[in-house]
TrEMBL record:
It is an enzyme of class 3 (hydrolase). It comes from the Bacteria. Residues 44-463 form the Amidase domain. This is amidase. PANTHER family: GLUTAMYL-TRNA(GLN) AMIDOTRANSFERASE SUBUNIT A, MITOCHONDRIAL, TRANSAMIDASE.
Length: 480
């Protein structure tokens, strides 16, 4: 089942599970349609995905909580799930609660005790008919941009196992890119959908704030930055997911997404940004990918021009302080939030460093929150003339394993993270949608993602544009 292919010009190997089984290279929409048409059975789809997941996980270390037996039992004892994605195999990320499975949030500070209830988003997700095979790995609390750990094997990139799969939805990205499943849950509080999408050659949309259901704890954050979504291999799957999810829960404060099955006809005003808010130059391969995409968009008839960076370097410092505040909120009252088995003594070096950094600068918090809450208005004012902003996802191509390890000295790691994750957090703070598409590759064959962002509530614009781009430049396949 496990297939290995050598990269041109290197001795490293791709890891994937694509084969001529019942899943083939179909996307989630295609698999769901084949199940509805009775070309394949739910059991056949499930067993094929289980075999695929088992075949790659030893190489990629992407699964945190396997739940294969539970998934089989669900098919055996109940009616087959209805919904757009009825019986399509998938995984949840291990920072949401699904009744009967443990939630560890990527940390050994938690006891692996099964939780009793589903999160609100999980209820919405399950109502679409998915068959959940387990939960995927993430770095501790999702704070890192690489899925690496203090005392465990990292999650590896299926395009080249010596490189990072991104984070914090790194486990989900590795499983989708390798073909274990066609689609998987992910979420994003600073780039955690878009960064692994860029690293692993996937489609990853962070939706507008409030687009999907969320937990009261998330809603109560001083600045609401966390959004759930999916990682997929096709724009069609991502569009179908949000269309179906909207039928279950529709936020009346946002324009509806609706059905999106074809490219948009309207020619858009697209602004291009290549340098980060920190003023650091983006690496040459990533810059080339953005500029090549800008040229493609111009050839397609869109109006492309240079856009200003909407915030200054102070934004990055403010976001880092807020990240540190979240580390305190998640750990200091840990037993009250997570249960009495939570152990503060077992958090990793990055989380501990963030906690200590916050306490050193706690007096800055009121001003930081004031500035972050104004970000949405600032972005709207500075980018008002543009329908879409085209930019890098990250400031350089995905790093090798170890570069962002939590074993690194905190000061060095945080400097690397700040430089690397320089484009994605703005959309989280502003509440705007942003989409990563796999539109280029490095000389060594690793994917490069390009980011498209739009005004709040304009996911439809992004998805219609993405369909147009995908038709013009089909995405590269790991199995090719």
């Amino acid at each position: 089942m496990l297939e290995k292919r050598t990269f041109p010009g290197s001795g490293t190997e791709r890891t994937h599970a694509f084969t001529d089984d019942v899943l083939g290279d179909a996307d989630a929409v295609g698999i769901a349609q084949r199940i509805r048409d009775r070309e394949i059975s739910p059991k056949e789809a499930l067993e094929a995905a289980v075999l695929r997941a088992q075949s790659v996980n030893g190489q990629l270390n992407a699964i945190q909580v396997p739940a294969f037996a539970r998934a089989r039992d669900s098919l055996r004892v109940g009616t087959h799930p209805d919904g757009e994605f009825g019986c399509v195999p998938t995984f949840l990320k291990d920072n949401v609660n699904m009744a009967g499975l443990p939630t560890t949030r990527g940390s050994v500070a938690f006891s692996p005790t099964p939780v009793r209830r589903d999160d609100r988003f999980v209820t919405q997700f399950l109502s679409l008919g998915f068959s959940v095979l387990g939960k995927t790995r993430l770095p501790e609390f999702g704070f890192n941009a690489s899925t690496e750990f203090m005392d465990d094997e990292p999650t590896r990139n299926p395009w080249n196992r010596e490189y990072s799969a991104g984070a914090s939805s790194g486990g989900a990205a590795a499983l989708v890119a390798s073909g274990a499943v066609p689609i998987a849950h992910a979420n994003d509080g600073g780039g955690s959908i878009r960064i692994p999408a860029a690293a692993c050659g996937l489609v990853g949309l962070k939706p507008s704030r409030g687009r999907l259901r969320s937990e009261p704890l998330h809603d109560a954050l001083p600045v609401r930055i966390i959004s759930d979504g999916v990682l997929s291999r096709s724009v069609r799957d991502t569009a179908a997911f949000f269309t179906a999810a909207e039928r279950v829960y529709c936020n009346k404060g946002l324009p509806p997404i609706g059905e999106i099955d074809r490219a948009g006809q309207r020619r858009l005003r697209i602004g291009v940004v290549t340098d980060s808010v920190l003023g650091h130059q983006t690496d040459s391969e990533t810059t080339a990918a953005v500029l090549a995409t800008a040229e493609l968009l111009s050839d397609l008839g869109h109006h492309v021009g240079e856009a200003p960076t909407p915030v200054d370097a102070g934004f990055a410092e403010d976001f880092l302080h807020y990240w540190a505040l979240l580390s305190v909120m998640l750990t200091v009252p840990g037993r009250w939030i997570h249960g009495r088995d939570f152990s503060m003594d077992r958090i990793d070096g990055l989380t501990r460093g963030l906690v200590e950094r916050f306490w050193r600068n706690a007096h800055l918090t009121p001003a930081v929150l004031y500035r972050l809450r104004r970000t949405g208005d600032l972005v709207r004012a500075k980018l008002e003339r543009w329908d879409v902003i085209l930019s890098p996802v990250v400031s350089h191509t995905t790093p090798p394993i170890g570069y962002l390890s939590p074993r690194q000295p905190f000061s060095e790691l945080i400097e690397r993270l700040t430089r690397y994750v320089a484009f994605t957090p703005l959309n989280n703070v502003a509440g705007t949608p942003a989409l990563s598409l796999p539109l280029a590759s490095t000389a060594a064959g690793l994917p490069i993602g390009v980011q498209f962002s739009a005004h709040e509530g304009q996911e439809r614009v992004l998805l219609a544009l993405a369909l147009e781009i995908e038709a013009a430049v089909p995405f590269r396949k790991i199995s090719a």
